[in-house]
Amino acid sequence: MHASTIFGFLAAAATAVLAVPHPHKEKAAVKCPLIFDGRIKSRTLPTDFDSSSTSLFNPDNVKGSSLKWSQIVKFPKEKGSRFDNCSHKPLEVTISDESVFKTQYGFRRAGLIFAADTNTGSPASKGVKTLHFSVKQDLKRPLNLTHEYLNIWHETSDWSANQFNFQTGTIIGQDTRKLPKNTFKIMSRENKLIWQTPIEKKEWQNFAITLDFNKNTLQVYYSKGNEPLRSVTKAVPNNNAGEGQYQFGILKKPTGTDDVVNKGYQESGIDEGQIYGGIFIEDSAGGCVSL
Ligand SMILES: *[C@@H]1O[C@H](CO)[C@@H](O)[C@H](O)[C@H]1NC(C)=O
Ligand SMILES: *[C@@H]1O[C@H](CO)[C@@H](O)[C@H](O)[C@H]1NC(C)=O
């Protein structure tokens, strides 16, 4: 074979290899009606989070009073998660020593609330809804798993309870042999473990939680990387009453106190972050869940 023919053959072979479907093509589409879309558009700037005219979320809550959201959010150079497409990018929520909300000196917290998620009468707190989110770790801003973290939850409108918590770290007052610190945990309204899985250091971890506000059940779906979600629990009984709002970010509890809101120990020099992707809420009436 003449050299140029071999070259042509190799070039054709290389083109064929490149023609393998682009990873973006394998990304999953949202199949059910969207209630709230919290996926971050590629062109979004940190300062967009500071104003209600440009933010998908409440620009005023829940964060340290001295901080703006543009000082809290970052856009890490990571590929998007399963439900992010080419027009979305991951979002990192960070906490620092300044992350003190009002007089809650025990907590370090920064939590995003969907702008349209009203405390009462929200469409996301009735019927059957599925909250989707993916998480990834920032190895430069690790969480300190000696502490208890709330990352995502739904809080009742009277702020007396959370219908569920998505947590990590050391859950105060619970058996660390059953709830090791290095797992993500989905906890019931009564703070009982529903499901847990180890924290991955490198891959995206994708979760979906279906809340049936009529039947008072909760069902968990999970996958790693770009795998389709699969159900990892049945629809288990959970008291979903009391409306309220979804929140995601970081709420780090202190150690060494019974009064976690106001007191306790937090080390100084905190620089921690949690990366999120593919955040949205869909309507799961009739059993629809995007996998
Ligand atoms: C990405 O998702 C958005 C919804 O946020 C949709 O409008 C857009 O068409 C999608 N883009 C692609 C390339 O699929
Ligand atoms: C983690 O938290 C514990 C308890 O507050 C503290 O003693 C320890 O120094 C922290 N570790 C790091 C690496 O910050």
TrEMBL record:
Residues 1-19 form the signal peptide. PANTHER family: GH131_N DOMAIN-CONTAINING PROTEIN, GLYCOSIDE HYDROLASE 131 CATALYTIC N-TERMINAL DOMAIN-CONTAINING PROTEIN. The lineage of its organism: Eukaryota, Fungi, Dikarya, Ascomycota, Pezizomycotina. The keyword Signal applies. This is Glycoside hydrolase 131 catalytic N-terminal domain-containing protein. It comes from Sordaria macrospora. Residues 34-287 form the Glycoside hydrolase 131 catalytic N-terminal domain. Keywords: Signal.
